[in-house]
# Entry
Amino acid sequence: MTNPYRAKITAIGGYVPPGVLTNHDLEKIVETNDQWILERTGIRERHIAAKDIATSDLALEAARVVLAARGLDPTDLHAIIVCTVTPDMLFPATACLVQDRLGAHGAWGFDLIAACSGFVYGLTTAAHLVSSGPPKKVLVIGADTMSRILDYTDRATCILFGDGAGAFLVETAEAGSEGLLDFVNEVDGSGGQFLKMPAGGSRMPASRETVDARQHFVHQEGQQVFKYAVRKMAEMSGILLERNGLRGEDVKLLIPHQANRRIIEATAKALDMPLDRVIINIDKFGNTTAATIPLATRDAVESGRLVKGDLVLFAAVGAGYTAGASLWRWQC
Ligand code: UT7
# Structure
C-alpha cells in the first residue's frame, strides 16, 4: 500500500488523573453493584480528576508526554486540535489554553466536538492538514473530564464514564512511505436525541430551572446508543477492510473506542477478529470519551502489542450520532 494522505503518527502519550473511583465506591453513591457494572460494561474502575483540575490540565499533561517522546520543542508544533465535549469553558477554546500553557508559540488550533468519535475525527483532520503544503506537525489531543457533566444520582450513566487525556503527533510523511491509508467518517444527526447534554448552549441557556431539572448532565438512552454502536463500529471498520482488500485477520490490531466491552466484542466478532488482536482497557478507565483511543493505543504500545510496521484500525461511535474509522501503518 502507498500513503495517499502523506500523514504518519510519530509519537503518542496519555495522562489520567490519580484519583480512582471503583465500582465498589459507586455502590455507596447509587443503587448499583460491581457485578452488574462488570457484566454489563466491562468496567472495574475509572479515574476522576480532583476538583481544581479541568480538561486543559489533562490535555497539557498528555501533550507534554508526546513532545518529550519525540524530543520536540512546543514551538515546533504547527497546530493543536483538542477533541473534547468538556472544554474548560465554551470559549476560549481549550486548544488556545493548551497552546498558551505549553508555550507553542506560532501554532494555531481549535476544539473539535464529536464526542466519542472526536479522536478519530481529529486524526482525519490532522492528516489532511499535514498532507497539504510544506511539512507540518499537528498535535491531536483527546481529553475529557466527564465527571463534571455526570449526574451521580443516575446509575445508568454515572457508572460509565471516567476522566483522562491522550494525544498523537501527526506529521507529514515522506513521499512513498506509509501512514494513514484510509478513513471513513459519518454523522447521523437523527440520533442526537439519544445522547446529549441538553442545557448550557443557545437552545437552553443556563438558568435556575435548567439546573433544578438536571439538564446540565449527560442524558442517554443506553439501549438505543448500544444498538447503533454495535452496528456502526462494525460497518465503519468493514468498509475500510473491504475497500483495501483486507480481511480482519490482515489487521494486527483493532483499537476501538471503549464504551462497553460488549460493543467491542460484537465488533470483533463481526470483523472475524480474535480478541487477542483487540485492545480492551475499559476495565481500568471506563469511557473517557475522546481519550479512549489514545489511552488504549498507549497500552498497546507499552505492552508491545503494537510495533512499527503493524496495520492498525481505529474505530469509534459517539453522540451525534457520530461514527468513524481509520486505517494506519504504524510508524512509531
Ligand atoms: O460512548 C458512546 C456512547 N455510549 C455507549 O456506547 C453506551 C451504550 N449503551 C450501553 O452501554 C448500555 O446500554 C448500558 C451499559 C448503558 C446499559 O446496559 P443495558 O444492558 O442496555 O441495560 P438497560 O438500560 O437495558 O437496563 C437493564 C436493567 C434495568 O432494570 P430493569 O428495568 O430491567 O429492572 C436498569 O434499571 O439494569 C438496570 N440498571 C442498573 N442496575 C444496576 C441500569 N443501570 C444500572 C446500574 N446498576 N448501574
